[in-house]
Design brief:
The chain has one domain: Histone deacetylase domain (Arginase, Chain A), CATH 3.40.800.20. It is 37% helix and 15% strand. The chain is built from nine helices and ten strands. Helix 6 links the parallel strand 6 and strand 7. Helix 7 packs parallel to helix 8 and helix 8 runs parallel beside helix 9. Bound molecules: zinc ion.
Length: 322
């Protein structure tokens, strides 16, 4: 694989760290500190482009969320500290962080589509892939990757693929695009596990029939099983779809150290899956690939996996295991 001639775009913002829970919670600011350490280890001598986050606009959010939901959310977030559901907390700074994360997701897309970068990685908090059109859940308020995909379509792209390798099913993203043939949603996730959706029988409906692909993985699945899933199912589906842009909901909680699930990936597997997608977008001729942090709750796993992913984006090759 040739080294990309364009820099790798990185989105990050210290204001994401202000989103925090009053009580101990796995979705905590230290996660991004760990990811930044991983970036630093991989990036020291190599080319990258820092892309600033900015708050998402109402128009951008409405491509993924219902207007009533956004109004209700804004109202609730003025209350200071609290919970939107059993495990989705908010604090006085959540409003700013969540809007910046969604806007930062669009900015990464724009940097890639403008040709300022070919590939990129956005370190975002709060995460987004469980956020549905009208509902916050699973630590997620706004669906960052869905807002980014919506922005890309609005710029005139015909087809966007979203690969979600977070260990939990990306139910929010699936719901938002379930009837949309312009967005191919592919999810690998432990099953059964929270949030309970993501059976292989869920394949889209209406015009979107056939544009959702769920690949449930058993607890204990390791790098070889994921390598096989990529070769047999994920990559063939992507080749058939020929996306103009490939986005990744890059949760890191399928790592074997993660406390919330039992899938057994190692950091190298994240590098290998990233390499496979870099190769895929290079085969398509445009090279456009954007990764968005979702979950991942073990700090060492986040650091090591982020270093692997960035290494792959910068051109280091790891072959799929198995
Ligand atoms: Zn997750």
């Amino acid at each position: 694989m040739k080294l990309s001639p364009l820099p790798v775009a990185i989105v990050d913002d210290r204001r994401f760290d202000q989103h925090r829970s009053a009580e101990p919670h796995p979705e905590r600011p230290e996660r991004l500190a760990a990811a930044r350490k991983g970036l630093g280890a991989a990036m020291s001598s190599l080319q990258h482009l820092e892309v600033a986050a900015r708050p998402a606009t109402e128009e951008e959010l409405l491509r993924a969320h219902a207007p009533e939901y956004l109004e209700r959310l804004k109202q609730t977030l003025t209350r200071g500290w609290g919970y939107l559901d059993g495990d989705t907390y908010f604090c006085p700074d959540t409003r700013e962080a969540a809007w910046l994360a969604a806007g930062g997701a669009v900015e990464l897309c724009d940097a890639i589509l403008d040709g300022r970068a070919s590939r990129g990685l956005a370190l975002l908090r709060p995460p987004g892939h469980h956020a549905c059109r009208s509902r916050s859940m699973g630590f997620c308020l706004l669906n960052n990757v869905a807002v980014a995909a919506g922005a890309a379509l609005d710029r005139g792209l015909d087809r966007v693929a979203i690969v979600d390798w977070d260990v939990h099913h990306g139910n929010g993203t699936q719901e938002i695009f379930y009837e949309d043939e312009r967005v191919l949603f592919i999810s690998t996730h432990q099953w059964p596990l929270y949030p309970g959706t993501g059976s292989a029988r869920e394949t889209g409906s209406g015009k979107g029939a056939g544009y959702t692909l769920n690949v449930p993985m058993p607890p204990g699945a390791g790098p070889e099983a994921y390598g096989e899933a990529f070769r047999a199912v994920v990559l063939p589906k992507l080749r058939e779809f020929e996306a103009d842009l490939v986005l990744v909901s890059s949760g890191l909680d399928a790592h074997r150290r993660d406390p919330l699930a039992e899938v057994q990936l190692d950091a190298e597997a994240f590098g290998a899956m990233t390499t496979a997608l870099c190769r895929h977008v290079d085969e398509l001729g445009h090279g456009r690939l954007g990764l968005y942090l979702e979950g991942g709750y073990d700090l060492d796993a986040i650091e090591d996996s982020t270093a692997e992913i960035l290494g792959a984006l910068l051109g280091r090759v790891r072959d799929l295991p198995g």
